[in-house]
Design goal:
alpha+beta; 26% strand; two-stranded antiparallel sheet; Extracellular Endonuclease, Chain A; 11 strands; 236 residues; seven-stranded antiparallel sheet
Length: 236
């Protein structure tokens, strides 16, 4: 039995990774090389009843030599940036709590995490609230530019695991509407303060795939999604 095919999040495809972590409300692909997730794949909840957990903690499903610890982020100058957004998973307390595992975190610049990244997360939830939208799928993760310097956090901790700071982040949003049509938007944000409107960071999904080194929405035929994108009036 193919386990990924049993997950709702993986309906339109799930990229490969060193270690796939199945949580109750989202799936995450972890990279041992980068000591953080390559991607997080989620379906946005319609309910928002549970409180924000704020219980950041290591993910002990990962080998010790590859996982992050709280002290790696302490005084690092970077936020513990959620990939699968906490506010997207408030159906119950346990689901929200799982978004605070450090496997779901990546070192984000505070002015990215607390500003435009947060704004985009809220726009995605607004999109999901539309009566015409049946389900909203989101995949996001870090991007490293190998022709640019890379900073690290965690070198001076007892964990001895240096975590590279991404140069940028991607997010790709896929919705299915009440007529069975699919609509897609993809973005790349540099890991810094971004002052332009969200729409200025929109890129082709192909560009995200090339920079992130993964294939997105692999269960959708390319010709079909291209045609539907042309007919879609973009939100951003």
């Amino acid at each position: 039995m193919d386990l990924p095919n049993l997950r709702r999040e993986a309906r339109y495809g799930m990229p490969a990774a060193d270690h796939i972590l199945y949580n109750r409300d989202y799936v995450l692909g972890y990279s041992y090389y980068f000591r953080q997730a390559k991607w997080a794949l989620e379906i946005v909840d319609h309910n928002a009843d549970a409180e924000r957990a704020d219980n950041f903690r290591p993910d002990y499903r990962l080998p010790e030599s590859f996982r992050a610890d709280l002290e790696d982020y302490h005084r690092s100058g970077y936020d513990r940036g959620h990939l699968a957004a906490s506010a997207n998973h408030r159906d119950n307390d346990l689901q929200n709590s799982e978004t605070f595992l450090l496997s779901n975190m990546s070192p984000q610049h505070a002015d990215l995490n607390r500003r435009i990244w947060r704004e985009l997360e809220e726009e995605v939830r607004n999109l999901n609230r539309k009566d015409s939208v049946l389900e909203t799928y989101v995949i996001c993760g870090p991007i490293f530019y190998f022709d640019q310097p890379v900073k690290f956090i965690g070198q001076d901790t007892s964990n001895e695991v240096a975590i590279p700071v991404p140069n940028a982040y991607f997010k790709s949003v896929l919705t299915e509407d009440d007529k069975g049509k699919l609509h897609m938007w993809s973005f790349i944000f540099p890991n810094q303060r971004c002052d332009n409107p969200i729409k200025d960071y929109r890129v082709s999904t192909t560009k995200v795939e090339q920079y992130a080194g993964i294939q997105l929405w692999s269960q959708i035929e390319g010709a079909k999604i291209t045609t539907e994108k042309k007919r879609t009036r973009a939100m951003w």
